[in-house]
Fold each of these.
Amino acid sequence: MTATLVKETSPPPAAGAGHARRLRRRGRAVALLFVLPALLLLGALVVYPVLFSVGRSFFDASGTQFVGGDNYTEMFSDPATMRAVRNTAIWVVVAPTLLTGLGLILAVLVEKIRWATAFKLLLFMPMAVSFLAAGIIFRLAYDEDPDKGVLNAAAVSVHDAFAGTPAYPSARARDGQGLTRTADGGYRTTATVSPGDSLTLGLVGVQPKDLPADAAAARTAAAAPGELRGVVYLDFTPGGGGEQGAVDPEESGLPEVRVEAVRDGDTVASATTAFDGTFRFEGLDDGRYTVNLPASNFAAPYDGVSWLGPTLVTPAIIGAYLWIWTGFAMVLIGAGLSTLPRDALEAARIDGASEWQIFRRITVPLLAPVLTVVFITLVINVMKVFDLVYIIAPGPVQQDATVLATQMWLVSFGGGNDQGLGSALGVLLLLLVVPAMVFNVRRFRRSQR
């Protein structure tokens, strides 16, 4: 009786299969319902703009006339576009390679320090800064004025510590006062002198506020037998008055001026002026001499490096990019490093391998998948770099630093107003990015399997 009841209440096989199909359809419908908003956004923000850009690239600047592949032909014949392609290639080769290498080295070193977490946080912190803010920071850091740009301030400090600074870059001699300008920018006496003579060499063009703090009042150097003496002074009396070519009581000596005694074209002696501007040459042979004030006294001061000039602007911007993304590479590689089998590393140490051998033959090969993913991710990122280039590069060198993303914007909206050519550049950029994205996706799928 029980068997009969069970048999009667059990659904037929066909009905059970239909019920399962309905459940699967319902599950697909629910899944589609949840995915639909994302699909709509993806279509509106990605698919439609891509298709529209591809279509727009076949029309002229106004978008009314079909021109076929003319935009692509113009794109590859335009010097500015080819410069953008070249700079993008430099970015793709240099930036990801340096970042991956720095990230690997830092990840390995951080494991060996006590405050590893704090160090990682410190290096990762620039990731929290927007590219706009980072561009402004580095635009100021790269400023050519040492009073504003921290890098040039450091460069000038190091240079002046080893090479010294010009004494009086703005100084010059008065006409007709016994000094004539040399070809290299220095000065020499128009008349020859001999031991026992005394010279007064007056200069102008030096602001009183620019005088050294230890400068004293100038005084005429008294002649002495067997010595050639003189004074280099500021031939200017504050408040006016005074006699040109003569040392007045209110006039200041010019200290630290290099003076040379020249005979037959050869420098036979040199001296440096004292606080009151006086100098003297001892032990000179009898004869006639010319006194020179070398050009090094009047050379323009060293102002540092033109970081944002046509030559260095791209490496300078890549440097700013490294500052931002080094922490990202280090953290990802560090995560991969933490999953390495420690027994293999310890076995290598027990066998007598050095740390360099362990790093080169064990750590790097085991981290190869992680390093590849980091490298390809950075390649994709640098192909799209725009903010740093646009913010850091000054207007006069914008074309020297341009990459595909900035060139696309400049052609379309930054004055070119040719959205047909700009769309062609966008399509080119998309075609360059897609292979790297496909490679990365395949790597992820292989790692999951």
Amino acid sequence: MNRAFLLGLTGSIGMGKSTTAAMFADEGVPVWDADAAVHRLYAKGGAAVSEIAALCPEAVVGDAVDRTRLKDWIARDPGAMTRIEAVVHPLVASDRAAFIADSNAPLIVLDIPLLFETGADTMMDATLVVTAPADIQRSRVLARPGMTDAQFKSILSRQMPDAEKRARATYVIETLTLDETRAAVRNLIARIGAEHA
């Protein structure tokens, strides 16, 4: 049996990555979500709970990682993020490997927000960046409940610039309208299927 084709999906905040990932799932393509994997690891009984407790006991409440307390620790301690990533990244990688191993689909989409930043793109057969003009991105993000301009700028500062992501991507989909995005997703599935049959 041929190995599945691994398509790494990414895009900066507000570019439509989650919506695009859902469109792949609607077409029957298995989608692994890095953020969802972290939520599972932090949930009660999750594999990261005891290790996070060892790093920062106050970040664990009721046998689950309290993300607000974790963020407070990160804000106080410049080295916290590196220590958390040393625990979480290998667990996320194991979760991803198990998902791939359990699937017998010809195409698997791996939704990874920091695909290029973490070097995960090197494990993919191809990469897809979703994008939109900066003014649309900004209006989408600032429409989110509780989002401020300062938070938006802070998130953007930690992400690779959109232009650089697009330059590194195998494929790019612009997410202006739902219908156009869905059509582009279907075209890409067909194209990968034809090229890698």
